């Protein structure tokens, strides 16, 4: 039994206390650091909202046992302290108003099985999700599209469930691709149990990820919170089949909030497994796609600005939507603050706040005490 | 052999001279009247553009023979002189710039088989079109949707072709509904020939319509011009199946230019007969629909203003798009001209000109020498 790093123990402890998204705790950690936050929770030295949220489990600290248990399974706890923490994948949460969407917060930390770096394996990733009651059409189309996406180097992110999720994981594995399963329970347990072997294979070649610590059992609200991580870890969300009230529509909702392109495959109007896809396309919540190349067309732009700076083209040409509006609202010389950018671009202030860090990561813009400004290319 | 009315003979003569859409001739007829226009064409007393357009056939006058031939078949020539002329169905053409879309003109006149009034039978109408190479899925979905639409009192307008068109006509007939076939050749000939019996049945319960006079044979460009009339005579354009380069996409194009809702049915991504539908949905050219009730939701609004004045609700609540923008731009008291309305509403001047007559027909607005004004309801 090795000594556990006290910082890591603090992350593990708080992860098990809140079990799921908790914006006020994220803020506290950001403000005072993880160890001080853990002390404050332990001693109930907290604002009322966090007192309520931590009351039930703050007296339970299984951090040492949890970290050792996960280590024995070949896993680890990945936190914002770690190089592999997928920081830029979490930027979209900055634009979500948690007073309206209380689960719209970045995860505190992620429990992970699998050898690869979370950041590296999700560098190019597409979420492929759908109904548990997949039709043979849905399974076939999943296999075709995922096979091509995985061959082209996209990691396939899904929820490990029956139906479309399982078909997506299997199709990625079948072509030697990377698959990432995001669970709504502890990573040491297989859910559904009959997917134990599948999830083991996913972990051995890709990742099994959860924000829930060891021992946490699945529950309806955890699946919904899990769906936001499926969207966050991906460049686009693709629904192959979804019934009228499918959880996949919830994943699409998160995809839209996080600024991810959301896509759906059409099917027969006689198939109940396609009704959710058709409704989302009708309502403009998802764009119709029929094949992998159309998915790649959509999944591309989010990443292009990040890599575009190095190549010959103008990286800003790759910007779309709010990114483009905000970038264009920046003056050629001088800087602007988020409020001015919101007024100039017509993008709501929350949207501006969500887009700015991504543009900064892409190297297109920078910030200083005067505000945000366009970065000039030295080699041009 | 009865004497032919000289006005009617003039319409028939000019219809055979131009054979298809001819905006300059429409303008001449509007300016000087049909008989004077016919004299001017005969004597080549014309602006250059009309000289070119009428040169080939201006010396041929088969009007008496054509009118008699059509009469013997139980048909007639319907012109703007007639009460049954579907004037308000042609209003959308006012918004089309014929210097860019040279075929975007109302037909000069319509050759018609069938007893019903063109205006009355097209009062509620949906165009249902698609590929000649329909799949069994497409034929089944056509039968289901058309069966419901026709039962609900919508006339089904189509092109009389093989595949989806034929399935649409048959499905309307099967439930005792009204079907309207718009041909790209003279109404005395059946095209395709194996649809002779079908077209005969369509004419005996609905209408067979063409802007081409007796003896005119089909040609590619005539099918394209015909498609604009399929759209014009309908409240919405529905494509059930369309291949990549289907003529149905051309009908959708006309539907969009004429301000009709354009709709498409999804299908399997493996079906080539659905590729055109999927592409139109992807590109925002058509909205996805899966059943008749969704079609009716879309086909409704165009008509509501026209009938809404009589019932209890505020008719202007039914206005959408440019209609609403233009109506709202009218002052509560006093009147405005089209140019002022364009500036106030943001709708281009051509769009304003296209919308005003429809609003007037609906009884919501009126016009006098000072411009256009809102009509106040006496009984409110």
TrEMBL record, chains A, B:
PANTHER family recorded: PROTEIN SMF
GO biological process, one term: DNA-mediated transformation
Pfam family, one: DNA_processg_A
Stated name of the protein: DNA-protecting protein DprA
UniProt cross-references to InterPro entries, sorted A to Z: DprA, DrpA_SLOG
Domain Smf/DprA SLOG: 77-298
Recorded family membership: Belongs to the DprA/Smf family.
Coiled coil: none
């Amino acid at each position: 039994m090795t000594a556990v790093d006290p910082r890591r123990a603090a992350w593990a402890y708080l992860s098990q206390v809140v079990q799921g998204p908790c914006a006020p705790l994220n803020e506290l950690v950001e403000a005072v650091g993880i160890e001080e936050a853990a002390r404050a929770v332990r001693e109930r030295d907290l604002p009322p909202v966090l007192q309520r949220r931590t009351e039930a489990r703050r007296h339970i600290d299984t951090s040492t046992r949890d970290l050792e248990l996960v280590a024995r399974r070949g896993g680890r706890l990945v936190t914002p302290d770690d190089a592999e923490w997928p920081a830029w994948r979490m930027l979209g949460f900055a634009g979500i108003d948690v007073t309206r969407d209380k689960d719209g917060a970045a995860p505190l930390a992620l429990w992970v099985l699998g050898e690869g770096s979370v950041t590296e394996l999700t560098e190019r990733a597409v979420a492929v999700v759908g109904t548990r009651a997949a039709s043979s059409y849905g399974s076939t189309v999943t296999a075709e599209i995922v096979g091509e996406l995985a061959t082209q180097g996209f990691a396939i992110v899904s929820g490990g469930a029956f139906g479309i999720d399982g078909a997506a994981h299997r199709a990625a594995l079948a072509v030697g691709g990377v698959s990432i399963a995001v669970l709504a329970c502890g990573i040491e347990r297989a859910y559904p149990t009959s997917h134990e072997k599948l999830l083991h294979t996913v972990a051995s070649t890709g990742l099994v990820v959860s924000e829930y610590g060891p021992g946490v059992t699945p529950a309806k609200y955890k699946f919904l919170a899990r769906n936001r991580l499926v969207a966050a870890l991906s460049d686009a969300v693709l629904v192959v089949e979804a019934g009228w009230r499918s959880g996949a529509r919830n994943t699409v909702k998160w995809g839209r909030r996080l600024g991810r392109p959301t896509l759906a495959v059409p099917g027969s109007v006689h198939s109940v497994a396609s009704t959710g896809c058709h409704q989302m396309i009708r309502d403009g919540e998802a764009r119709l796609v029929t094949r992998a190349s159309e998915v790649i067309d959509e999944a591309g732009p989010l990443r292009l600005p990040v890599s575009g700076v190095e190549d010959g083209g103008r990286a800003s040409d790759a910007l779309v939507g709010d990114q483009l509006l905000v970038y264009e609202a920046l003056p050629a010389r001088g800087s602007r603050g988020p409020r001015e950018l919101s007024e100039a671009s017509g993008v709501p202030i929350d949207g501006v706040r969500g887009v700015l860090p991504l543009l900064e990561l892409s190297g297109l813009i920078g910030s200083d005490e005067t505000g945000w400004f366009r970065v000039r290319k030295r080699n041009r």
